[in-house]
Backbone:
C-alpha cells in the first residue's frame, strides 16, 4: 500500500467502559455492582476512590458525543452497565430508565455519523449475582444471556457491532484469583470456573444477539500479552510457555474449538487446582464457546519478559532481555513495546483461524495537566500511539486482516484499583469541574483519522 499505511475503510475509534465514566450510580433504579462494593472496602482502591461520579457521562452524554464528533471518531466502543438494566442481575422486565439512556447514546452517535460498538460486559456484575456465587456459578451464564437478550432486543435495530465480554482473563484472574479486581477473591479453582463460565456465556449469547440484531457483527474482546523468555535457558522457556498458556491460550484455544490446552490442564492439576480434569466442563460446552464469530477484539498494552522462579537467579543463564528501564515504561509501570503488538498480530494470523481483527483497546497512562497556555502536552502518550499505530500498519502490510483501531481511552477516567491516579485519556478531565480538554495526542489522533494513516503531506 504505497503512500498509505492503512487500507480504505479502516475503522478509527476510541473506547470507554460504563463504570469508568458513567457516574449516576444511584439514579434510574440502577443496582449495586461488584465494583461499587469493592470501592467501599478499605484499601482496595487507591485514594478510596469510587465510580459514583467518574466522568459524569450519564448527565453529559450529548456534550461527550459532540467531543467525539469534533475528534473525528468513526466509531465509539462503549459498554452497557448490567445493573442499569437489571439491578439484581435478573428480572422479568429491564429498567426503562437504563434502556432509555443507551437509546439516547446510540441515537446521538448515529446522528453524529459515529458507529456504535456495544460491549455487554465490562466487569460491572450486579452484586446480587455475586452474592449467589458470581461467575464461578454456572447460573450466571443464564443471567447474562437474559441480559444480552433484553439489551439486543432494544438496541439491535441500530447497533450493528456487539462485543459480548471484555477481557475474560481480567474478569476471572484479577477478580477471582489475585483479588486485585472486584469481587476480590483469591481462589484459583474458582477463577478457572469463572473463566469457563464467561467463555460459555459468550457462546450462549452470540446466537441470541444475532436473532435480535439481524445482520449485526458479533465478537468478543480478549487482552493478550505476547511473552519472551528473559534468557535462552530451558527454565525461562518453560516459564514463558506457561505464561502464554495461562494468559493467552487458556482463552484463545476454547474460542477456536480446541478446548483447554493440555499442558495447562496438566499444570493446574499438578498444582492441585484441578482434580485431573475440569469439573466445570459439561457436554457441549466447548461447542458453544467456539460459536463462529465475525471478529476478534484485541486489547494490547505491553509484553511480558519471563524469568523462571524455579531456579535460583545465579543458576540461570544470563539475561538477554533485561528488566525494562523506568524511562521505557508508562506511569502505571508497563513497558512501552510496539513491536509486541506487531508480533501478536502476526502470531494470531499464524496460529489461529483467520478472521477479521480489531484493536479494541491500546493506550498509555501518563500524568499530564494543562500548562500555562491551557494546552496539554502529552508527548509520551503521543509517541506511544504513533509507535503502536505504526505496528498495526506493518502487520497489515504483512497480511494480517486488521480492520480497525480503538484508542484507550477517550477520557481520563476511573482506572479500577488505581482509582483516579492514572490517566489514559485522549481527553483530559478535571474531576472537580468535569471540564474536558483535548490533549496533544487527541489533536494528533484527529489528524491521523483524517488522513486514514497516510503520511504527512511533504508540503
Residues:
Amino acid at each position: 500500500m504505497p503512500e498509505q499505511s492503512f487500507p480504505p475503510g479502516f475503522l478509527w475509534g476510541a473506547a470507554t467502559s460504563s463504570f469508568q465514566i458513567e457516574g449516576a450510580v444511584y439514579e434510574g433504579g440502577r443496582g449495586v455492582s461488584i465494583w461499587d462494593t469493592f470501592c467501599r472496602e478499605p484499601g482496595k482502591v487507591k485514594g478510596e476512590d469510587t465510580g459514583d461520579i467518574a466522568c459524569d457521562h450519564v448527565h453529559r452524554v450529548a456534550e461527550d458525543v459532540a467531543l467525539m464528533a469534533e475528534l473525528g471518531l468513526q466509531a465509539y466502543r462503549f459498554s452497557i452497565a448490567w445493573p442499569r438494566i437489571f439491578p439484581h442481575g435478573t428480572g422479568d422486565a429491564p429498567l426503562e430508565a437504563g434502556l432509555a439512556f443507551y437509546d439516547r447514546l446510540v441515537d446521538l452517535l448515529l446522528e453524529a455519523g459515529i458507529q456504535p460498538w456495544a460491549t455487554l460486559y465490562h466487569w460491572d456484575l450486579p452484586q446480587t449475582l455475586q452474592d449467589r456465587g458470581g461467575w464461578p456459578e454456572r447460573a450466571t451464564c443464564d443471567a447474562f444471556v437474559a441480559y444480552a437478550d433484553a439489551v439486543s432486543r432494544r438496541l439491535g435495530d441500530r447497533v450493528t457491532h456487539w462485543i459480548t465480554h471484555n477481557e475474560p482473563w481480567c474478569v476471572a484472574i484479577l477478580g477471582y484469583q489475585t483479588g486485585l479486581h472486584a469481587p476480590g477473591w483469591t481462589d484459583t479453582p474458582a477463577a478457572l470456573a469463572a473463566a469457563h463460565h464467561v467463555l460459555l456465556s459468550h457462546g450462549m449469547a452470540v446466537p441470541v444477539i444475532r436473532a435480535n440484531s439481524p445482520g449485526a457483527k458479533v465478537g468478543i474482546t480478549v487482552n493478550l500479552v505476547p511473552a519472551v523468555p528473559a534468557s535462552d535457558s530451558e527454565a525461562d522457556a518453560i516459564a514463558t510457555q506457561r505464561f502464554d498458556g495461562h494468559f493467552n491460550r487458556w482463552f484463545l484455544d476454547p474460542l477456536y474449538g480446541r478446548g483447554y490446552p493440555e499442558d495447562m490442564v496438566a499444570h493446574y492439576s499438578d498444582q492441585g487446582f484441578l482434580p485431573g480434569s475440569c469439573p466445570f466442563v459439561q457436554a457441549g460446552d466447548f461447542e458453544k464457546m467456539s460459536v463462529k464469530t465475525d471478529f476478534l477484539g484485541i486489547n494490547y498494552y505491553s509484553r511480558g519478559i519471563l524469568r523462571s522462579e524455579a531456579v535460583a537467579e545465579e543458576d540461570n543463564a544470563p539475561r538477554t532481555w533485561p528488566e525494562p528501564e523506568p524511562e521505557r515504561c508508562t506511569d502505571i509501570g508497563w513497558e512501552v513495546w510496539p513491536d509486541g503488538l506487531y508480533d501478536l498480530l502476526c502470531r494470531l494470523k499464524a496460529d489461529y483461524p483467520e478472521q477479521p481483527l480489531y484493536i479494541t483497546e491500546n493506550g498509555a497512562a501518563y500524568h499530564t495537566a494543562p500548562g500555562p497556555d491551557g494546552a496539554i502536552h502529552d508527548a509520551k502518550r503521543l509517541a506511544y500511539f504513533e509507535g503502536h499505530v505504526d505496528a498495526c500498519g506493518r502487520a497489515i502490510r504483512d497480511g494480517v486482516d486488521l480492520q480497525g483501531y480503538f484508542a484507550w481511552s477517550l477520557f481520563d477516567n476511573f482506572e479500577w484499583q488505581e482509582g483516579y491516579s492514572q490517566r489514559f485519556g485522549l481527553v483530559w478531565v478535571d474531576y472537580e469541574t468535569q471540564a474536558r480538554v483535548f490533549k496533544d495526542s487527541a489533536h494528533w489522533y484527529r489528524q491521523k483519522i483524517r488522513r486514514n494513516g497516510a503520511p504527512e503531506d511533504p508540503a
